[in-house]
Amino acid sequence: MPSLDDTLSSNDITREIRNFDRRQERRRRVVPRAALVGLLAGIVASAFRMTLEGLDHARDALFRAAHGMPRPWGLLLVMAVCGTGAAIGLWLVRRFAPETSGSGIPHLKAVLHRLRGMRWRRILVVKFASGVFGIGAGLALGREGPTVQMGGSVGQMVSRWLRSNARERHILIAAGAGAGLAAAFNAPLAGVIFVLEELRRDFAPGALTGAFIASVTADIVVRLAINQSPVFHVTNPPVPPLSCLPLFLILGVVAGLLGVAFNRTLLGSLRLFERTARWPFGLPAALVGAAVAVVGWFAPEALGGGSPLVQDTLNGRIGLEAVSIFLLLRFAMTMTSYGTGTAGGIFAPLLVLGAQAGLLVGLLGQPIFPSATGFGSSFAVVGMAALFTSIVRAPLTGIVLILEMTSSYPLMLPLLAACFTAYALADMLHDRPIYEALLERDLLRGNARPAEGGQAKIVEVLVEAGAPFDGRRVADLGLPPGCLLVTIQRDDRDEVPSRDTVLHAGDRLTAVVAPAAVGGIETLRHGADYRG
Fold this sequence. Notes:
Helix content is about 65%, strand content about 5%. By secondary structure, the chain is mostly helical. It is globular.
């Protein structure tokens, strides 16, 4: 006769088998849905990318024709065209879908945390059109932000078509976002890691499967529609000797400081442009578009996403003086372009800045490190990953993205060294990752449609000594889905919490609680109060 222990063991085994079967069934449901999301997201991204490439050629032709016109009529013509395009892009966002402003990635994060709803029809149409007008006009914005948000919208669309449950819907939204990134840069692994490291921040099997299937499918679609070459071409990247490693650590420090300056200036630019919210039509973007046209009059390669400028930097066709000028110029253009609120991302612009900063460090460091001579392209490649890590605080995504975009796999050691240094320095300076800061800003401003069921609420609580939250990690607080800790005010400074952040008495917590987060407010208040 079996003992009680044997019976319990048999029940445990049976329960585990049932759980395994349920997980397998969920995977079987997710795989075809994720493949459909990847297919459609790849089609949308390909159309968006080809449209922008066509507009780049048309804009270059316009500038060439304008140079043949009597002065100043040629310059006035390009200023009018670029200004009008940027103005239309901003007007579409303000009039029809404010959640499509900028990259749209903070909005996706809010959706996945159940803090915002998603109007996928409006987002697809407005994001595509606004991105085409704004980026096509020459604003220093990237196509990856729009493709990520449009990919997430495709995931929402498919989940509605196939009547998926809430869990599957969020998996498909995240998978669509990863597919959008993969399609933008021909980087499927980066799309998967971006979903897991930045958007969801967990490695749940369903999320991993969905992101992988969708990203690979979208990448195949784009390669068939456009080409299968890496976005940037670095022929046989030279591997610097180990004696150059200290210079790569210096590059990490420079990237860390530049990333902090990037994040804080970008937020300041958004605050500055908020004052123009009542200006008619898209006047703020029109003024920026006209100013960008003046830059394009002298250096057309500096406009738009900046891929030609990155390629010239990687190929060593830019000298020390020119790279310094372009670095400052593109920094200012990115701040003002994103500040307008027109649809467009920051991935491509920050890669331009990273490549130029990396080349600049490599050139300036040659007198002290003679062994670095001739490795300018290697410093440019590493600079892109290091600056991405400093700004976004997603090192795995940054490293894998740059490796896939440049095929510079021999540079793994310099990449790791520079990215770790940049990450550590930005963290030590208490700088918030850019998408966390933008998410908090949008939630506090209410700059998006609320989640289904009502408006999200902002809640502040003070952790008292001896309260349930005192001394516990954020991951162990038991907060329901839709209840998100945004900041912790500690010792007169604000911090962005992670899962491993430990709370202490005296911490003031700011949280956003969605209507669907049942018991979220009560959990926060109970956990922060000491009841003896």
